[in-house]
Structure formats: structure tokens, C-alpha cells
Amino acid sequence: MKKLVLSPIALVLALAGCGGPHDDALVFAVGGTPSELRVWQEIVAEFEAETGIPVRIRRQPPDSTQQLQTLIVSLGSGQRDPDVFMMDVAWVGLFTASGWCHPIENVETDAFFERVLDLVDRHEGVLMALPVYMDGGLLYYRTDLLEKYGYDGPPQTYDELIEMCLTVQEGERTENPSFFGYVWQGAQYEGLVCNFLEFAGKEGGFLAPSGPEPRPIMLDRPINREALQLMRDLIWEYKISPPSTYTEMREEEARMFFQEGDALFQRNWPYAWSDHQSEGSPVRGKVGVARLPAMEAGQDVSTLGGWHIGISAFSNKQEEAQQFVAYVTSKDTLKKMVLELGWNPGRTDLYDDEDILERAPHFPQLREIFEHAKPRPLVPYYNQLSSIAQQRLSACLANRVSPEEALAIAQEEIETLVRTYGDTERLPEHARAAAE
Ligand code: GLC
Q1: Percent of the chain with pLDDT over 70
Q2: Domain assignment present for 379
Q3: Separation between Cα atoms, residue 326 and residue 104, nearest integer Å
Q4: Is the CB of 29 under 6 A from ligand 1?
Q5: 58 phi and psi, to 5 degrees?
Q6: CATH code for the domain in which residue 311 is found
Q7: In this structure, are residues 224 and 389 in contact, taking their beta carbons and an 8 Å threshold?
Q8: Which atom of ligand 1 lies closest to the CA of 133?
């Protein structure tokens, strides 16, 4: 057998993943489901063909919290790549405040969701990122099952949801013992915080609802305790959400559970729609989409989600990176993403596009949801805040602590964090106004 002998330099290069034909390529860090990555590959290939600029996709782990960790390693240490990356809307504040983003130049911003640009993407008035797609929590429901059990529409309140789930679950279990009423994202990761904010409704969540600005972060409040109690009860008391909710239920787990035909309702982001409607999906043609329920009808809230594109301040390929960002956020590219993935573009000028409306008639309703969606706190230390919330909410869902204990401990930890990092005062004036 031949021994492979590498010179020290070659060894360093090989370990660093360098060398090879794409040495000069623009590195684009992006994650997602297999179908999303396939579309990204197509987009990159089209960009390369049009501009002659080679691009290498650096595949990121699927969930938001893990992606953040890998990007913090590269950007926090000032590495040259990735040159361009996708950021969860929840971390744009951290990235811009840390000086990791280079301003986006020469992009006409009129067509984008103005409130979101103000809230998230402009840092001290300078455009640092652009929304590629928007997310907001939605309720998916089985139209055939509602009809079978005599309901004329999806629930508007959680009481109605519980009642429907108990009835349908009991009926369906005679044929399908794995059937559950409601699946949502309860695993310990960013998605859990998004779900919690929705259960907590308009007045609940991180920021105290009223009082002088800046509003303090106040998680330990009756309204939040009630929301957490409800989340816990769905699993342990009513048993209409499976025990796997808190061990493993992220977006894809919930989507697959529902798609297999094993649930009546599902909370998920808009992307799940096109998978449910795809060929071979057991629930194809039997799915409706509605606003989430609320404690009181009409008080529903969707968390503002979505992914934004940014350019690294450490990239030495600024010009190519700017071209790539302009290409990705162009009307044509975003339209392709909508048609192929059912994503909701960060541009408003696609919401009345006829080709899109034909495929997704619920699109205008979504635009309305995004316009009013609730942002996560725009503080630069949001990732630490979220990680405290994730840990404590999860302990409660696992039935290890009561909602009262969970939120009281979280509040103490948050106060230590705020003493270290400052408070919401750090929010620029325009962002505070837009957060209302
Ligand atoms: C989606 C949303 C993102 C959110 C994440 C949580 O990707 O777009 O904003 O943080 O889900 O899992």
C-alpha cells in the first residue's frame, strides 16, 4: 500500500478545506431542508452562468440555533469566509451590533417590507441586510377531518382547539393509534421561543406591555405563566400533543408528523404548505391554512420569522458579494423561490403576482400576517436571552418544573444578563418605534 505523504503546507490547506478548483469562489453559507438546498444550488448555478463568478455553498446545519453557533465561530474570529450568509431575522441585531456585516449597496429598497427593513435591517440608518423571505406562524388543519366531525372551520381560540382535538383524536385513534390532535415546535431550540411568543399573545412575551420606554424585559408575568401552563397541558393534561413535542419537535418533525396524516392541526411556518401539497403527500388536497388560535378570538399573534442575507465585513470579495446579494433578492429570483418552495418573499411586489396566486391563493392573507407579526426583542444579546428562555421553557414542558418556577428562574437569569449587556435602551429610536 502506498502511503500518502503531505507536505506541512499541503496538510494545513487540506485540513482547512482549501485548495481545488474553487479556491477563488465566493463562499455562501446557507442551510435548510433538502428541497431548499436544491433550489439554492440552482440559483447559484444560474448566477455563475450569468456573471462568471464562482460560488461555493457552505452547507449549514438545519436548525437556526445550530446555524448561529457555526457562524459565530467564523465571524467572531474575523475569518474571510463565508463572504455571504443567511441570517435568521432573530440574530440580525447581534450581527450588525458586532460589526460583522458590511453595508448592502446599490439595491433599490422600495419593494421590500419597509417595517421589517426599519425594524431589523437598518443599523444606524445604514442598510446591513435584506429579507430574502418572511415567516410568520400559521395554523394548518385537515379540512377532511373537520368536515367528517361536523366542524365548519378551524378554531379561533385554544379552548375550541382543545375541544376539537379531543373529539377527533378519540375518533381517529380507533383506526390510527398514533394520531394526535396538535403538533407544534416544543424542542429546546429557537423555534420553542417563537411558539411560546404566539401562545403568550399580544400582551405577553419578553417586553413589559406598557410603561415608559425603554420597556424592560419581563418574562415572569401572569400572562406568560398562563401561556406556558397551556403548552404544558396540551402534552400532559389533555394529551393532544405527543410527548415527543418537547424532546424532538422542530419544524420538520412537525411537518412530517402532520404530512403522514397523524395530526389534525399543526403550527408551522408557511414553507410547509408546498410540501403538504406536493405529489405523493398523503394529505395533499386536504389541508387548510388559517391564523393561529388565541386565548381570546381575534387576539392571535404570529412571531415574525424569516431569513435575511448579509455580507461579511471580513470578506475580501465585496464586489462579487454585492452582485450576489442583488441577484438573490431580485424579483425574478425570489419569484422562483416562491414557486418552487412556497416561500414568502421579503419583497412586497410579488404578493399580487398572478402565477403565484394561482399556486397559493392564501398569499395575500400572509402578507397581512407579516405586516403585523411580532418581532423578538431587537437587543444584540437576543441569542443569550433566547437560550435562557429555551432552557427554562423546556424544563417546564418536560414537567420537571412548574410554569411559575420556570419563569421565575428565567427572570433572575435575564436580570443578570441585562446587567451585563445593557437594556432595551440600546435599541435605536426608529427600531423601537417600528417594534410597536
Ligand atoms: C424559521 C424562522 C426563524 C425562526 C426559526 C425557529 O426558520 O424563519 O425566524 O427563528 O424558524 O426555528
Answers
A1: 92
A2: no
A3: 9
A4: no
A5: -100, 110
A6: 3.40.190.10
A7: no
A8: 8
Assess whether the C-beta atom of 186 lies below 6 angstroms from ligand 1: no
Q: Which residue, judged by its Cα, is nearest atom 9 of ligand 1?
A: 305
pLDDT in tens, 331-387: 999 999 999 888 899 999 999 999 999 888 888 889 989 989 999 998 889 999 999
18 Cα to the center of ligand 1, angstroms: 31
Q: How far apart are the first and last CA of the chain?
A: 69
The reply to whether 25 and 148 lie within a common domain is: no
How confident is the model over 242-261, as a mean pLDDT?
A: 97
Helix (H) or strand (E) holding 359: helix 354-359
> Can you read off the three cell numbers belonging to residue 169?
383524536
Determine if ligand 1 sits within 6 Å of the CB of residue 337.
no
- Do 314 and 252 share a domain, yes or no? no
Instruction: Cell numbers for 362, please give them.
Output: 392564501
Could you give the dihedral angle defined by the CA atoms of residues 298, 140, 68 and 330, in that order, rounded to the nearest 10 degrees?
-90
> CA 327, CA 43: separation in Å to the nearest integer?
9
**Distance between Cα 88 and ligand 1 center (Å):** 6
Pocket test for ligand 1, best of 60, 64, 71 (most atoms within 8 A of CB): 64
Does residue 142 sit in the same domain as residue 120? no
Q: 59-94, pLDDT tens digit by residue?
A: 998 888 889 999 999 999 999 999 999 999 999 999
Give the up-direction half-sphere exposure of residue 406: CA atoms within 13 A in the CB hemisphere. 25
Nearest-CA residue for atom 8 of ligand 1: 306
Given this model, what pLDDT does residue 1 score? Answer: 39
pLDDT averaged over the chain? 90
Structural domain span for residue 131: 8-135+304-371
Pocket test of ligand 1: the residue of 71, 116, 192, 269 to mutate, having most ligand atoms within 8 Å of its CB, is 269
What is the rounded average pLDDT of the residues 14-28?
63
Cβ of 252 below 6 Å from ligand 1: no
Specify which residues 139 forms β-bridges with: 267, 290
Q: Is the CB of 262 under 6 A from ligand 1?
A: no
- The model's pTM is 0.90
Span from the CA of 348 to the centroid of ligand 1 (angstroms): 20
CB atoms under 10 Å from CB of 141, counted, come to 25
Nearest ligand 1 atom to alpha carbon 306: 8
Average the pLDDT over 388-400 and give the result: 98
Question: Which of 239, 265, 290 is the last residue in one of the domains?
Answer: 290
What's the domain count of the chain?
2
Ligand 1 pocket, residue 172 CB under 6 Å: no
Q: What is the pLDDT of residue 2?
A: 39
Distance 269 CA to ligand 1 centre (A): 8
